[in-house]
Protein backbone atom coordinates (compact mmCIF):
# COMPACT_ATOMS: atom_id res chain seq x y z
CA UNK A 1 0.00 0.00 0.00
CA UNK A 2 1.41 3.44 -0.90
CA UNK A 3 2.34 5.80 1.94
CA UNK A 4 1.32 8.80 -0.12
CA UNK A 5 -1.63 10.60 1.47
CA UNK A 6 -4.77 10.64 -0.60
CA UNK A 7 -5.96 13.94 -1.97
CA UNK A 8 -8.82 15.14 0.35
CA UNK A 9 -10.70 16.40 -2.69
CA UNK A 10 -10.94 12.86 -4.01
CA UNK A 11 -12.61 11.66 -0.76
CA UNK A 12 -15.55 14.02 -1.09
CA UNK A 13 -18.88 12.68 -2.33
CA UNK A 14 -19.73 13.82 -5.83
CA UNK A 15 -22.18 16.72 -5.90
CA UNK A 16 -25.81 15.82 -6.39
CA UNK A 17 -27.05 16.60 -9.84
CA UNK A 18 -30.40 18.32 -10.05
CA UNK A 19 -33.25 17.36 -12.35
CA UNK A 20 -33.32 19.21 -15.64
CA UNK A 21 -36.73 19.77 -17.20
CA UNK A 22 -35.60 18.18 -20.41
CA UNK A 23 -36.54 14.93 -22.10
CA UNK A 24 -32.83 14.21 -22.40
CA UNK A 25 -32.58 13.97 -18.59
CA UNK A 26 -33.01 10.31 -17.54
CA UNK A 27 -34.49 11.10 -14.10
CA UNK A 28 -37.00 13.52 -15.62
CA UNK A 29 -38.10 10.90 -18.17
CA UNK A 30 -38.45 8.29 -15.39
CA UNK A 31 -40.73 10.55 -13.34
CA UNK A 32 -42.88 11.39 -16.36
CA UNK A 33 -43.31 7.72 -17.27
CA UNK A 34 -44.26 6.84 -13.69
CA UNK A 35 -46.86 9.61 -13.62
CA UNK A 36 -48.32 8.38 -16.90
CA UNK A 37 -48.50 4.76 -15.73
CA UNK A 38 -50.12 5.68 -12.42
CA UNK A 39 -52.59 7.93 -14.22
CA UNK A 40 -53.42 5.16 -16.70
CA UNK A 41 -54.03 2.62 -13.93
CA UNK A 42 -56.16 5.10 -11.97
CA UNK A 43 -58.16 5.86 -15.11
CA UNK A 44 -58.84 2.21 -15.82
CA UNK A 45 -59.93 1.63 -12.22
CA UNK A 46 -62.22 4.70 -12.32
CA UNK A 47 -63.76 3.51 -15.61
CA UNK A 48 -64.37 -0.01 -14.24
CA UNK A 49 -65.97 1.32 -11.04
CA UNK A 50 -68.15 3.83 -12.91
CA UNK A 51 -69.19 1.27 -15.54
CA UNK A 52 -69.99 -1.35 -12.88
CA UNK A 53 -72.03 1.11 -10.82
CA UNK A 54 -73.98 2.20 -13.92
CA UNK A 55 -74.75 -1.39 -14.96
CA UNK A 56 -75.87 -2.29 -11.43
CA UNK A 57 -78.14 0.76 -11.32
CA UNK A 58 -79.66 -0.04 -14.72
CA UNK A 59 -80.42 -3.61 -13.67
CA UNK A 60 -81.60 -2.45 -10.22
CA UNK A 61 -79.18 -4.70 -8.39
CA UNK A 62 -78.62 -3.65 -4.79
CA UNK A 63 -75.05 -3.13 -3.57
CA UNK A 64 -73.50 -2.72 -0.15
CA UNK A 65 -72.55 -4.80 2.83
CA UNK A 66 -75.80 -4.66 4.75
CA UNK A 67 -76.56 -8.30 3.89
CA UNK A 68 -73.82 -9.44 6.27
CA UNK A 69 -76.03 -8.69 9.28
CA UNK A 70 -79.05 -10.57 7.92
CA UNK A 71 -80.01 -14.12 8.91
CA UNK A 72 -78.27 -16.58 6.60
CA UNK A 73 -80.55 -19.63 6.79
CA UNK A 74 -77.56 -21.49 5.39
CA UNK A 75 -76.79 -24.98 6.78
CA UNK A 76 -73.09 -25.77 7.22
CA UNK A 77 -72.12 -29.38 7.81
CA UNK A 78 -68.93 -28.74 9.80
CA UNK A 79 -67.46 -25.71 11.51
CA UNK A 80 -64.74 -24.92 14.05
CA UNK A 81 -66.99 -22.48 15.89
CA UNK A 82 -70.63 -22.83 16.97
CA UNK A 83 -72.95 -22.08 14.06
CA UNK A 84 -76.63 -22.49 13.20
CA UNK A 85 -78.71 -21.44 10.16
CA UNK A 86 -80.21 -18.63 12.24
CA UNK A 87 -76.82 -16.90 12.43
CA UNK A 88 -75.84 -14.04 10.12
CA UNK A 89 -74.11 -14.21 6.77
CA UNK A 90 -71.03 -12.69 8.40
CA UNK A 91 -70.71 -15.65 10.76
CA UNK A 92 -71.34 -18.11 7.93
CA UNK A 93 -68.53 -16.53 5.93
CA UNK A 94 -66.29 -16.66 9.00
CA UNK A 95 -66.98 -20.39 9.22
CA UNK A 96 -65.94 -20.69 5.56
CA UNK A 97 -62.68 -18.85 6.23
CA UNK A 98 -61.88 -21.12 9.19
CA UNK A 99 -62.67 -24.22 7.12
CA UNK A 100 -60.29 -22.97 4.42
CA UNK A 101 -57.57 -22.35 6.99
CA UNK A 102 -58.15 -25.81 8.48
CA UNK A 103 -57.47 -27.53 5.18
CA UNK A 104 -54.60 -25.18 4.26
CA UNK A 105 -52.65 -25.43 7.54
CA UNK A 106 -53.02 -29.19 7.96
CA UNK A 107 -52.38 -29.77 4.25
CA UNK A 108 -49.17 -27.71 4.23
CA UNK A 109 -47.74 -29.55 7.24
CA UNK A 110 -48.62 -33.06 6.03
CA UNK A 111 -47.60 -32.38 2.41
CA UNK A 112 -44.22 -31.05 3.56
CA UNK A 113 -43.51 -34.17 5.62
CA UNK A 114 -44.71 -36.59 2.93
CA UNK A 115 -42.98 -34.72 0.09
CA UNK A 116 -39.68 -34.61 1.97
CA UNK A 117 -39.78 -38.35 2.65
CA UNK A 118 -40.62 -39.13 -0.99
CA UNK A 119 -37.90 -36.79 -2.25
CA UNK A 120 -35.30 -38.52 -0.04
CA UNK A 121 -36.61 -41.94 -1.12
CA UNK A 122 -36.20 -40.87 -4.75
CA UNK A 123 -32.44 -40.59 -4.09
CA UNK A 124 -32.22 -43.83 -2.13
CA UNK A 125 -29.61 -46.43 -3.09
CA UNK A 126 -32.38 -49.02 -2.83
CA UNK A 127 -33.43 -49.55 -6.46
CA UNK A 128 -37.01 -50.62 -5.66
CA UNK A 129 -37.67 -47.76 -3.23
CA UNK A 130 -36.25 -45.22 -5.66
CA UNK A 131 -38.39 -46.50 -8.56
CA UNK A 132 -41.56 -46.56 -6.45
CA UNK A 133 -40.96 -42.93 -5.45
CA UNK A 134 -40.27 -41.96 -9.06
CA UNK A 135 -43.43 -43.71 -10.29
CA UNK A 136 -45.50 -41.97 -7.62
CA UNK A 137 -44.13 -38.55 -8.61
CA UNK A 138 -44.68 -39.04 -12.34
CA UNK A 139 -48.19 -40.51 -12.04
CA UNK A 140 -49.61 -38.10 -9.45
CA UNK A 141 -48.22 -34.96 -11.11
CA UNK A 142 -49.66 -35.94 -14.50
CA UNK A 143 -53.24 -36.49 -13.26
CA UNK A 144 -55.59 -33.49 -12.89
CA UNK A 145 -56.15 -32.54 -9.27
CA UNK A 146 -59.94 -32.39 -9.66
CA UNK A 147 -59.94 -35.96 -10.96
CA UNK A 148 -57.93 -37.07 -7.95
CA UNK A 149 -60.32 -35.36 -5.54
CA UNK A 150 -63.32 -37.04 -7.15
CA UNK A 151 -61.48 -40.38 -7.05
CA UNK A 152 -60.76 -40.20 -3.32
CA UNK A 153 -64.27 -38.97 -2.55
CA UNK A 154 -65.74 -41.90 -4.49
CA UNK A 155 -63.46 -44.29 -2.58
CA UNK A 156 -64.61 -42.92 0.77
CA UNK A 157 -68.25 -42.99 -0.25
CA UNK A 158 -67.81 -46.64 -1.24
CA UNK A 159 -66.71 -47.70 2.24
CA UNK A 160 -69.07 -49.86 4.34
CA UNK A 161 -71.73 -48.37 6.62
CA UNK A 162 -70.98 -47.65 10.29
CA UNK A 163 -72.22 -51.09 11.39
CA UNK A 164 -69.69 -52.79 9.08
CA UNK A 165 -67.00 -50.10 9.46
CA UNK A 166 -63.29 -50.85 9.33
CA UNK A 167 -61.62 -50.91 12.74
CA UNK A 168 -57.83 -50.76 12.20
CA UNK A 169 -57.11 -49.79 15.83
CA UNK A 170 -58.88 -49.41 19.14
CA UNK A 171 -61.29 -46.49 18.98
CA UNK A 172 -60.59 -45.86 15.29
CA UNK A 173 -63.40 -46.47 12.78
CA UNK A 174 -63.49 -45.85 9.04
CA UNK A 175 -66.81 -45.88 7.20
CA UNK A 176 -68.78 -43.94 4.60
CA UNK A 177 -69.60 -41.44 7.37
CA UNK A 178 -65.91 -40.55 7.65
CA UNK A 179 -63.09 -41.28 10.07
CA UNK A 180 -63.77 -41.50 13.81
CA UNK A 181 -60.84 -41.00 16.19
CA UNK A 182 -60.48 -40.91 19.99
CA UNK A 183 -60.44 -37.37 21.31
CA UNK A 184 -60.84 -35.45 24.54
CA UNK A 185 -63.86 -33.61 25.88
CA UNK A 186 -62.66 -30.15 25.00
CA UNK A 187 -63.17 -27.52 27.70
CA UNK A 188 -61.82 -24.06 28.52
CA UNK A 189 -59.00 -25.66 30.54
CA UNK A 190 -57.75 -27.37 27.40
CA UNK A 191 -57.74 -24.05 25.55
CA UNK A 192 -55.70 -22.43 28.32
CA UNK A 193 -53.30 -25.38 28.35
CA UNK A 194 -52.88 -25.09 24.57
CA UNK A 195 -52.16 -21.38 24.96
CA UNK A 196 -49.61 -22.26 27.65
CA UNK A 197 -47.95 -24.71 25.26
CA UNK A 198 -47.62 -22.03 22.58
CA UNK A 199 -46.20 -19.53 25.09
CA UNK A 200 -43.84 -22.21 26.41
CA UNK A 201 -42.49 -22.94 22.92
CA UNK A 202 -41.93 -19.22 22.31
CA UNK A 203 -40.26 -18.84 25.70
CA UNK A 204 -37.96 -21.80 25.06
CA UNK A 205 -37.02 -20.40 21.65
CA UNK A 206 -36.07 -16.97 23.01
CA UNK A 207 -34.24 -18.50 25.99
CA UNK A 208 -32.18 -20.68 23.62
CA UNK A 209 -31.27 -17.61 21.57
CA UNK A 210 -30.27 -15.71 24.71
CA UNK A 211 -28.15 -18.61 25.98
CA UNK A 212 -26.43 -18.92 22.61
CA UNK A 213 -25.67 -15.18 22.55
CA UNK A 214 -24.21 -15.29 26.06
CA UNK A 215 -22.09 -18.31 25.15
CA UNK A 216 -20.72 -16.44 22.15
CA UNK A 217 -19.88 -13.51 24.44
CA UNK A 218 -18.16 -15.29 27.36
CA UNK A 219 -17.52 -18.79 25.99
CA UNK A 220 -19.42 -20.48 28.81
CA UNK A 221 -21.92 -23.15 27.65
CA UNK A 222 -25.34 -23.12 29.26
CA UNK A 223 -27.81 -25.98 29.47
CA UNK A 224 -30.96 -25.11 27.59
CA UNK A 225 -32.96 -28.33 27.83
CA UNK A 226 -34.01 -28.07 31.53
CA UNK A 227 -35.56 -24.66 31.02
CA UNK A 228 -37.03 -25.64 27.66
CA UNK A 229 -38.52 -28.81 29.14
CA UNK A 230 -40.06 -26.85 31.98
CA UNK A 231 -41.58 -24.28 29.64
CA UNK A 232 -42.83 -26.66 26.96
CA UNK A 233 -44.16 -29.40 29.25
CA UNK A 234 -44.28 -27.99 32.77
CA UNK A 235 -46.22 -24.81 31.98
CA UNK A 236 -49.08 -26.50 30.05
CA UNK A 237 -49.36 -29.28 32.64
CA UNK A 238 -49.48 -26.75 35.47
CA UNK A 239 -52.26 -24.82 33.72
CA UNK A 240 -54.06 -28.09 32.97
CA UNK A 241 -53.95 -29.12 36.64
CA UNK A 242 -54.83 -25.65 37.95
CA UNK A 243 -58.02 -25.47 35.90
CA UNK A 244 -58.99 -29.08 36.60
CA UNK A 245 -59.09 -30.33 33.01
CA UNK A 246 -60.45 -33.88 32.71
CA UNK A 247 -57.96 -36.59 31.80
CA UNK A 248 -60.37 -39.15 30.41
CA UNK A 249 -60.67 -39.49 26.65
CA UNK A 250 -63.75 -39.41 24.49
CA UNK A 251 -63.83 -42.76 22.72
CA UNK A 252 -66.24 -43.13 19.76
CA UNK A 253 -68.81 -45.91 20.05
CA UNK A 254 -71.53 -47.20 17.75
CA UNK A 255 -74.99 -46.03 18.84
CA UNK A 256 -77.78 -47.07 16.53
CA UNK A 257 -76.89 -46.30 12.93
CA UNK A 258 -73.97 -43.95 13.62
CA UNK A 259 -71.07 -43.31 15.99
CA UNK A 260 -71.26 -41.08 19.03
CA UNK A 261 -68.36 -39.30 20.67
CA UNK A 262 -64.77 -38.89 19.54
CA UNK A 263 -63.41 -36.75 16.73
CA UNK A 264 -65.11 -36.90 13.34
CA UNK A 265 -63.25 -36.36 10.09
CA UNK A 266 -65.94 -36.02 7.44
CA UNK A 267 -65.57 -37.76 4.05
CA UNK A 268 -65.51 -34.39 2.26
CA UNK A 269 -62.66 -33.02 4.39
CA UNK A 270 -60.80 -36.35 4.35
CA UNK A 271 -61.00 -36.67 0.54
CA UNK A 272 -59.93 -33.05 0.03
CA UNK A 273 -57.01 -33.43 2.44
CA UNK A 274 -55.78 -36.67 0.86
CA UNK A 275 -56.06 -35.30 -2.67
CA UNK A 276 -54.31 -31.99 -1.94
CA UNK A 277 -51.57 -33.61 0.15
CA UNK A 278 -50.74 -36.36 -2.34
CA UNK A 279 -50.79 -33.97 -5.30
CA UNK A 280 -48.68 -31.26 -3.65
CA UNK A 281 -46.29 -33.78 -2.08
CA UNK A 282 -45.29 -34.99 -5.56
CA UNK A 283 -44.09 -31.49 -6.47
CA UNK A 284 -42.45 -30.95 -3.09
CA UNK A 285 -40.58 -34.25 -3.52
CA UNK A 286 -38.95 -32.98 -6.72
CA UNK A 287 -38.05 -29.69 -5.00
CA UNK A 288 -36.43 -31.58 -2.12
CA UNK A 289 -34.57 -33.86 -4.53
CA UNK A 290 -33.22 -30.88 -6.46
CA UNK A 291 -32.18 -29.17 -3.23
CA UNK A 292 -30.29 -32.23 -2.02
CA UNK A 293 -28.54 -32.66 -5.37
CA UNK A 294 -27.44 -29.01 -5.22
CA UNK A 295 -25.23 -29.76 -2.20
CA UNK A 296 -21.68 -30.54 -3.41
CA UNK A 297 -20.74 -34.20 -3.40
CA UNK A 298 -17.68 -33.34 -1.36
CA UNK A 299 -19.94 -32.69 1.65
CA UNK A 300 -21.07 -36.32 1.55
CA UNK A 301 -17.53 -37.62 1.10
CA UNK A 302 -16.14 -35.50 3.93
CA UNK A 303 -18.88 -36.61 6.31
CA UNK A 304 -18.46 -40.27 5.36
CA UNK A 305 -14.71 -39.91 5.93
CA UNK A 306 -15.53 -38.84 9.49
CA UNK A 307 -17.49 -42.07 9.95
CA UNK A 308 -20.97 -40.53 10.04
CA UNK A 309 -23.91 -42.67 8.99
CA UNK A 310 -25.80 -41.74 5.83
CA UNK A 311 -29.01 -40.83 7.68
CA UNK A 312 -27.11 -38.57 10.07
CA UNK A 313 -25.32 -36.91 7.15
CA UNK A 314 -28.65 -36.21 5.48
CA UNK A 315 -30.25 -34.82 8.64
CA UNK A 316 -27.40 -32.72 10.02
CA UNK A 317 -25.27 -31.70 7.03
CA UNK A 318 -27.08 -31.97 3.70
CA UNK A 319 -30.64 -30.88 4.45
CA UNK A 320 -29.66 -27.68 6.34
CA UNK A 321 -27.64 -26.59 3.29
CA UNK A 322 -30.30 -27.74 0.83
CA UNK A 323 -32.94 -25.62 2.58
CA UNK A 324 -31.49 -22.52 0.95
CA UNK A 325 -32.46 -23.97 -2.41
CA UNK A 326 -35.66 -25.67 -1.25
CA UNK A 327 -37.47 -22.84 0.56
CA UNK A 328 -38.16 -20.38 -2.34
CA UNK A 329 -39.92 -22.90 -4.66
CA UNK A 330 -41.57 -24.52 -1.64
CA UNK A 331 -43.37 -21.23 -1.02
CA UNK A 332 -45.05 -21.52 -4.41
CA UNK A 333 -46.29 -25.01 -3.57
CA UNK A 334 -47.77 -23.80 -0.28
CA UNK A 335 -49.59 -21.07 -2.19
CA UNK A 336 -50.77 -23.58 -4.78
CA UNK A 337 -52.15 -25.91 -2.12
CA UNK A 338 -54.05 -23.07 -0.47
CA UNK A 339 -55.56 -21.85 -3.75
CA UNK A 340 -56.29 -25.39 -4.97
CA UNK A 341 -58.43 -25.89 -1.88
CA UNK A 342 -61.10 -23.87 -3.71
CA UNK A 343 -61.85 -27.10 -5.64
CA UNK A 344 -63.53 -28.28 -2.44
CA UNK A 345 -66.86 -27.14 -3.87
CA UNK A 346 -66.70 -30.11 -6.29
CA UNK A 347 -66.95 -32.65 -3.45
CA UNK A 348 -69.22 -30.71 -1.12
CA UNK A 349 -66.73 -29.37 1.44
CA UNK A 350 -67.95 -25.94 2.54
CA UNK A 351 -64.99 -23.60 2.42
CA UNK A 352 -65.04 -19.86 1.78
CA UNK A 353 -65.68 -20.37 -1.96
CA UNK A 354 -68.66 -22.66 -1.41
CA UNK A 355 -70.26 -20.49 1.27
CA UNK A 356 -69.62 -17.28 -0.68
CA UNK A 357 -71.19 -18.77 -3.80
CA UNK A 358 -74.27 -19.80 -1.83
CA UNK A 359 -74.43 -16.35 -0.23
CA UNK A 360 -74.28 -14.47 -3.51
CA UNK A 361 -76.92 -16.78 -5.01
CA UNK A 362 -79.28 -16.05 -2.11
CA UNK A 363 -78.62 -12.33 -1.80
CA UNK A 364 -77.61 -11.35 -5.33
CA UNK A 365 -74.53 -9.57 -3.93
CA UNK A 366 -72.22 -10.99 -6.59
CA UNK A 367 -69.55 -8.28 -6.49
CA UNK A 368 -69.33 -8.34 -2.71
CA UNK A 369 -69.16 -12.16 -2.66
CA UNK A 370 -66.35 -12.30 -5.21
CA UNK A 371 -64.54 -9.49 -3.37
CA UNK A 372 -64.68 -11.47 -0.12
CA UNK A 373 -63.16 -14.53 -1.82
CA UNK A 374 -60.40 -12.40 -3.35
CA UNK A 375 -59.56 -10.68 -0.07
CA UNK A 376 -59.45 -13.97 1.86
CA UNK A 377 -57.12 -15.72 -0.58
CA UNK A 378 -54.99 -12.60 -1.01
CA UNK A 379 -54.58 -12.29 2.77
CA UNK A 380 -53.68 -15.96 3.21
CA UNK A 381 -51.25 -15.91 0.28
CA UNK A 382 -49.49 -12.75 1.47
CA UNK A 383 -49.23 -14.18 5.00
CA UNK A 384 -47.60 -17.37 3.69
CA UNK A 385 -45.24 -15.37 1.48
CA UNK A 386 -44.19 -13.04 4.29
CA UNK A 387 -43.48 -15.93 6.65
CA UNK A 388 -41.53 -17.93 4.07
CA UNK A 389 -39.53 -14.86 3.00
CA UNK A 390 -38.67 -14.20 6.64
CA UNK A 391 -37.58 -17.82 7.10
CA UNK A 392 -35.59 -17.75 3.87
CA UNK A 393 -33.74 -14.64 5.08
CA UNK A 394 -33.02 -16.38 8.40
CA UNK A 395 -31.30 -19.36 6.77
CA UNK A 396 -29.54 -17.44 3.99
CA UNK A 397 -25.75 -17.38 3.95
CA UNK A 398 -24.33 -14.10 5.23
CA UNK A 399 -21.04 -13.01 3.71
CA UNK A 400 -18.46 -11.75 6.20
UniProtKB/TrEMBL annotation:
Molecular function terms from GO: transmembrane transporter activity
Record InterPro entries: AA_ABC_transptr_permease_3TM (IPR010065), ArtM/GltK/GlnP/TcyL/YhdX-like (IPR043429), MetI-like (IPR000515), MetI-like_sf (IPR035906)
Mode of membrane association: Multi-pass membrane protein
Every ABC transmembrane type-1 domain range: 97-388
Membrane spanning residue stretches: 30-49, 103-121, 189-208, 228-249, 269-292, 370-391
Gene Ontology BP, a term: amino acid transport
UniProt KW Cell membrane keyword: yes
Pfam families noted in UniProt: BPD_transp_1 (PF00528)
Alphabetically ordered keywords of this record: Amino-acid transport, Cell membrane, Membrane, Transmembrane, Transmembrane helix, Transport
Any one annotated GO CC term: ATP-binding cassette (ABC) transporter complex
Subcellular location field: Cell inner membrane; Cell membrane
Principal localisation: membrane
Entry's family note: Belongs to the binding-protein-dependent transport system permease family. HisMQ subfamily.
Protein's name according to its UniProt entry: Amino acid ABC transporter permease
Amino acid sequence: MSDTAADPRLLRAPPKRGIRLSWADERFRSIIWQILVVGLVAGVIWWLVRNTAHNLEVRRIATGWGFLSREAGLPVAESLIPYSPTDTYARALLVGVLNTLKIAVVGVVVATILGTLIGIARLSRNWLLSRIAAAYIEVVRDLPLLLQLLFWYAILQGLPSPRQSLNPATGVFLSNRGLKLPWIQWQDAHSFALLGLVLGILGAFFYARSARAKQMADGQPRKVWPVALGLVLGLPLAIWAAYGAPWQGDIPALRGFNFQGGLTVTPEYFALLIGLVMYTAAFIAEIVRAGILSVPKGQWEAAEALGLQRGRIMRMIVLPQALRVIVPPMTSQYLNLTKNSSLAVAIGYQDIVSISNTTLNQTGQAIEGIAIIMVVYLTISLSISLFMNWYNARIALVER
